[in-house]
Amino acid sequence: MAVWAGAALVTAHAASGGEPGLAVSGRVSSDMRTVRVHLQGTPYTGISRQDGTFTIHNVPPGVYTLEVIDSLSVWPQLEVDVGVRQPGRVQALSARKETLVYPLQLEPLGAANYFEKREGFNLRAMLMNPMVLTMGFSFFSIFLMPQLMKNIDPEALKEMQDAQKQLLGGASAAPPAALEGKSAAPKRGAVST
Amino acid sequence: MLRAIALLLGALLGASALYEDQAGELDWYRQNVGAVLHADFHTAQGRRLVFVSTDVGMVAALDATTGETAWRQPLPAGERIVAQAIAPGAGALLVGSLAPDGALMARRWTLDGDLVWDVAVLPPAPDAPSPAALAFVGDGAESVVALWGASVTLVRGHTGERAWAWTHEAGEVSASWGGVHLTADRSTLVVYGRAGAGRSSALARAELAFASGAPASEVQLARAPSALDEADAAVLTLEPRFVVTLDAARTHLVFQADGDDGAHGGGAVRTSTMGAWSHASAGAHARILRVPLPGAVLVRLGEGHVVLVDLTTGEPHVRWEARAAGPVAIGSLRAGAQAIVAAVYAGAPAASLEQSTVLVTAGGAEVLPSPSAVPLTRGSYGAPSALYLGSYSKKDGGGVVQIAQRALLVTADGAVHGLADARALWAREEALARPEQLEFLAPPRARETEALADGPQYGQLLRAATRALGVAGGAGARPDGASGGGGALFADSFGFRKLVVVRTASSKVLALRADDGGVAWSALPSLDGQPVETLTMVVVPAPITHLDTDLLLVVRTLSQPHTYAALTYDGLTGELRAPAHSLPSRVLWSAPVPASDAALAALEAGARAPAVGHALVLDDFTVALLPDTDATARAFEAARTSIFFYLLDGAAGVIRGYGFARSQKQHGFRAVVRWTYILPANAHDLSIAQLDSAEAVHAPVQVLGDRGVLHKHLNKNLVALGYTQLDRAAPAAGPSVHVTVLDGVTGAAVHDFVQPRAAGPVKLALTENVVVAHSSAVPSGKPMLSLIELYDNATEPDYLAIMFSGSDAAALRARSSFEPRAPFALSTSFFVSAEVEAMAFTQTAKGITPRQLMLALHSGQMLALDKKLLDTRRPIGAPSTADREEGLMPYSPVLGPMPLQLYVTHGHRVERARGVRCAATTLESTSIVALYGADLFISRQSPAKNFDMLAPDFNKGALALAVAALGVGTVVTTHLRRRQELNRLWR
Predict the structure, then answer these.
(1) What are the angstrom distances between the C-alpha of B238 and each of B343, B482, B691, B840?
(2) How does it sit in the membrane (chain A) (predicted)?
């Protein structure tokens, strides 16, 4: 009420010399931090006081978008009707065009987080990395595959070799010795001696 | 649809979002307070603070010992601070300001920077009187009195509630109040000032009931012997009280004693002829300054002459003169039984400052025998302009407590210096709070490294190699402070190392390092020792990459008639290249003259002579060449047919385009009008912008989702003109914003865009074939962005031509403005959730990376908007398959609210934001962006992530370890394989 009384005084005073103006007032919940409450497209700005209240002085009649300038929290934007629909009075509408309580009660929507979250160590993500998968396959082929071949049942190995032989055909098939791990070439040691 | 928008926004987010640990690594922020207008010292909780209010509307507390900002509170934009008062006992700081609409505002702050109350003391007034005075009266700051013109307003000190207001209006003798005094019984408020004008001037005195403001009696008028000065308010001294002012000619001191008995103590008005006090003639420069001394004022008679006047006798108590003529800054303080008055002025060597001090005690006044030097930190600051003194107690060697003096000195450039005990404690370059122009300046490449430093991949190796070999500058040596000296600053391989050159409102030029914000050099231009106003700053790029870039300043003297001159500085070191080049008039336009092939060859061969000329178009449209040599004239003659410029005459609503022709004079050229474009008669809020001629464009076409192409209308001579127009035939329709795109060479109107029901001021940004305009919707005032994209009419796309002429040079040089093409335009508009103060597009080395639109918001933040969001072809309704393939989002009339990760400034706010500048780096992915206003923020921006650079957090150690492990593994397995093979063969 005190703010309204002040606004009435200002209006009465201004009526003689200049354009009449109203005061837009309210309270912000900002944990005692100072924030600015601004009407977009105008120079009219209020500064929040110690107790969270604010007043934007000498606002000419019009419809404005009210925003809170604060880099630590996210605030809603409101539409403020200053003396247009109801001369001498201020009305505020939310984004959904709902009429709000006046003087305004502004609450932040949440804390502002401007940063991307850096992901920590993730073993699953690391193992699923294509490079890691490629390296793992290569490791498997080079080191583990021969071990598997050694431990395989001789009869099963023989069957595999036969199947491979049939698959490749007689002309292009590798000599059986190669599949058995024995070289068809003469032994170097025998040649040199 | 919302899901699609959210998904795309999410995808865009990743493009430029910052990790928290990168804040401060990839960017820096410089916070300023501005040049100090009022200052009060106070020690609270063991911390010595100085509370200041400044010329950019900031209220702040600075640590008097370190100069650091303890707290800072910006007043609403546009408010001009006119008064400050402090009540230390009550922990209250009072600041008065004039709002843009002319209302007088008063705010009470705690000494910790919290706002206690704010009140519009007096309503908006179109012809607002100035100056105003605010004062605490009563115990414990219980009341505040505001004096403004003929009005006296009492505000409750604890609540900010207006108690009463009284205005003296009596026909032609309207008063202007300047001093206030509360009587000892707290019943009456006595206000003092002057009334009337001309020969009817009088000293005025009114008594008002403290409780109600009711006048206790008629206003008492004491006729002055001559007309009184109307520019400054009358001054009231400490007990014994005198009300003092100057006569209109500022040659006489006019004063009157006053007592608590309710009557003018001395009765008659007395005058003293100031001319008798000094051989310096008093006049326009004379000023009365309050001092905390009983019955005394300081009178500054003019440059360098100061008199402390004892008004009980009407004669100088003490007088002293500065040893050198020039501006004098005067401060005073009262410490116990003594008072100190100090004056700082330019010393005999012009570069030094000296302080002369007077001690005033009950026994008399004493001028300290010799002036002490005022030591300032290195830099160019100019003459002293204001001095504020504060006292503090300290113990000497014997444990005796002494009163010492601390000072805040403001110099002509706006810098603020903290001084104590003949020592400079700190300096703040507060000229940066009022930037007029900001430019990026690329340092040269070292000759030794240029041949190899072709890409970023070689940069690290080169840096390491040059460091190892001790090649000067290869490792990025920096200039040696202000002197510059021979220390060279060379470009780094990524192009991040640049200088940010700022021209300030105080005409000072400062070069800051873009990577850490340090001041590389600063210069306050002058002509023959006289202060000057810097009108223009032009960056003159070096013709070859291993030479320094120059800065050309066009200046004029402050005194009438103005003398004009051109000064050329080495942009890297801040050294003056050559003596000032006198100019006969102001400069309308300027541009570097392209160096000839022969000159370039000479430079490559190591020639030291300046091969870059500069052409200046003077007021009479003649061309002045710098240097005025045959070589420069030949170079200009060779290039003149391809040089064009335009001038906007906002008052007449005309833009004229100019070319160059030869004149009769030897080496003579003159600018001639080539075209004229006349704006509609009712156009207002004009703004103009043009393409950055250095902007790189990679793709001449835009590939569509259906594999078709749109040919961009690429023309480096595009000029965009924005204005607001009210159709007089249909005023009910409201104003509309027009954006007219012109060809700067021929003046041809390329396109005209109209945004109905919108108003300016229009802010513009251009890139490639895109024009963006910011305006406000009418009547809601919601901010809007309008986009205009220009495309050429091409029937069949020539794919081979596109593939082989895709580079910037081939695509753009082949087209001429004299072969006009009528483009077609796609346009759209969006509402945005935040008010925009300025905007610019990111720039990259080759123009391959998608651009972002950087918006400087009213809130002081900078928002990066991806071009995808601003596409004119966003479909209305469900997107087609081709639209989806192209990544087009469904159209939404409102852009925002934006994800917070797109706010480049994160938690920082650049107060009074007024401009954005972007510069390319060597890395194609990265652009350097600067947001400037009262503060400065610089960051690196990568619209498409760092695709050509390892991330800063890349684990190089792990990479080295993996490579080493692979190497060892290869060696070991080879060895094992050989052994195995040998064993097998021997088997």
Answers:
(1) 21, 45, 62, 55
(2) Single-pass membrane protein
